[in-house]
Design goal:
Blueprint lengths: L22 E5 L7 H9 L4 E4 L8 E5 L2 E5 L12 E4 L4 E2 L1 H13 L8 E4 L3 E2 L2 H13 L13 H9 L14 H18 L7 H8 L2 H5 L3 E2 L1 H10 L4 E4 L23 H6 L10 E7 L2 E3 L12 H10 L11 E3 L1 E2 H11 L3 E5 L9 E10 L4 E2 L6 H5 L1 E9 L16 H14 L3 E5 L7 E3 L3
Parallel strand pairs: 1-10, 1-11, 2-5, 2-10, 5-7, 6-8, 7-9, 11-15, 14-16, 15-19
Antiparallel strand pairs: 3-4, 12-13, 16-17, 16-18, 19-20
The structure holds guanosine-5'-diphosphate.
Length: about 450
């Protein structure tokens, strides 16, 4: 599909070859797959970078030279000159997090005006959404906690679906502060029924008084902008946050995020139609991690798990929470490939496994009555009855972090990644062996 000409229908005027096909990038596991780095690599060929779902509960880490950037809302394309970045309609945006992130970029000399656009349809995470999120999590009993980041993402998506949400475009309207008062009062009624602390209406209204002036330069009808860019032959990169197993529909419900983190969400979260997407890239970590509560069949509660956490730096970019770590799960990856239709894998963090004498891969789940699952069961009670079926391969016990050509990898490391590819039916397109841009191999791209 490389360089697909844009013949998708009469409104498309551009006829030619794009520098990079329109690309969607999706995490294949429970998030933290290293999407930030792969996005950074692909961004070099893209003109427009669109974030299509999630909020500031996600965090991408990008290393450029000796500087480290952790971005929660703004696409990391902002670090490249001449790229247009869009926060799509599928994102929920906490305005003060956004302003803080903008300030940090300005302090590091990065210009954002005219380079960052926020969809006027994107919903805003307001203080009452955050209060509702935290109060709801607090009132749940131990086994029923979702493990949310408590940032108000869930209630904001809830308000969106319940048709009471506040959109970025609403901030620019004359009745904005009246709506704030109305909504704080409604939230207080719910908080009171939960026995939680109430919000001070005047204080919250005061917080938002200066917001319209600050946010106005960035708000736009981004559907129009994205379509015009596509028609003009610009290459569009759509980046997802979190991962397939946290998707509201396809993840381990209810231990999921509140948005569509899979490839379909790229269309509903940006306004780019499905036929204008040329390829879908799956970011896949060479082992598995998960943050917060919820099922994790290949989790390791031993020295190997601890080693993966230490070598992989498996601590959340947003929350600092330590991640649960385990063996690679081909059942999860196979299922993610089904749901997203990946064209190729961008595999990450192979180097984290360098020391191990033996590596294990979960190839299937076996239920207590012997039934074998090859793809992920939808029912968590079923999953609880399953045990991973492992296959063992010898470790390579050689450092891979300096390797820049696939042919130079230890044969045992190649056998491992090729096994992951054959078990999932998806070829390897990118292989990453370190956090830096240079530690990236491209295979047949
Ligand atoms: P994301 O949310 O999917 O972008 O993932 P995170 O940014 O939370 O986690 C990725 C972390 O792993 C970051 O600190 C990256 O710099 C780092 N990283 C990415 N790729 C590799 C790799 O191939 N090897 C190693 N050792 N670290 C990597």
């Amino acid at each position: 599909m490389n360089g697909r000409a844009a013949f998708a229908g009469p409104p498309v005027l551009f006829v030619g070859v794009k520098a990079m096909p329109n690309t969607v990038l999706v995490g294949a596991q429970w998030g933290d797959e290293g999407k930030g780095k792969i996005i950074d690599v692909l961004t070099q060929q893209a003109d427009v970078i669109v974030r299509y779902q999630g909020g500031s509960n996600a965090g991408h880490t990008v290393i450029v030279g000796d500087k480290k950037y952790v971005l929660h809302l703004i696409p990391s394309g902002i670090l490249h000159e001449d790229k247009l970045c869009v926060i799509g309609n599928g994102v929920v945006l906490e305005p003060f997090d956004l302003l803080r992130e903008l300030n940090e970029l300005h302090e590091k000399g990065i210009e954002t005006k005219g380079r960052l656009l926020i969809s006027d349809r994107a919903h805003l995470v307001m203080r009452w959404h955050r209060a509702l999120d935290q109060a709801d999590e607090a009132r749940r009993s131990a086994g029923k906690k979702i493990g949310t980041t408590g940032r108000g993402i869930g209630p904001t998506y809830g308000a969106k679906v319940g048709r009471t949400g506040m959109r970025a475009g609403d901030v620019l309207k004359a009745d904005f502060l009246d709506r704030v008062v109305e909504q704080v009062e409604a939230a207080n009624a719910t908080l009171a029924s939960w026995g939680a602390e109430l919000l001070d209406v005047a204080e919250i209204t005061g917080l938002y008084r200066e917001l319209p002036d600050k946010i106005a330069p960035y708000v736009a009808d981004t559907v129009k902008v994205i379509h015009e860019a596509d028609r003009a032959g610009k290459s569009i990169l759509l980046e997802g946050a979190q991962g397939t197993m946290l998707d509201i529909d396809f993840g381990t419900y209810p231990f999921v995020t509140s948005s569509s983190s899979t490839a379909g969400g790229a269309c509903t979260g940006s306004g780019l139609p499905p036929r204008r997407i040329d390829r879908v890239v799956g970011v896949l970590k060479c082992y598995t991690t998960r943050v917060g509560a919820g099922p994790f069949p290949t989790e390791l509660d031993d020295d190997v798990g601890e080693m993966l956490r230490r070598r992989g730096g498996e601590y959340g970019a947003t929350t600092g929470r330590s991640r649960r770590c385990g063996w690679f799960d081909a059942v999860v990856a196979r299922y993610a490939a089904q749901v997203n239709g990946f064209d190729f894998w961008a595999m990450t963090k192979l180097d984290v496994l360098d020391e191990l004498p033996v590596v294990r891969i979960c190839v299937a789940y076996e239920r207590d009555d012997g039934f074998r699952y090859e793809t992920f069961p939808s029912d968590l009670d079923e999953l609880a009855r399953c045990k991973p079926v492992y296959e063992e391969m010898p470790g390579w016990q050689t450092s891979t972090s300096e390797v820049t050509r696939y042919e130079d990898l230890p044969l045992k490391a190649r056998a491992y990644v090729e096994r992951l590819s054959s078990l999932t039916g998806v070829r390897i397109g990118i292989l990453s062996v370190g956090p830096a841009r240079e530690s990236t191999m491209r295979l047949g791209l």
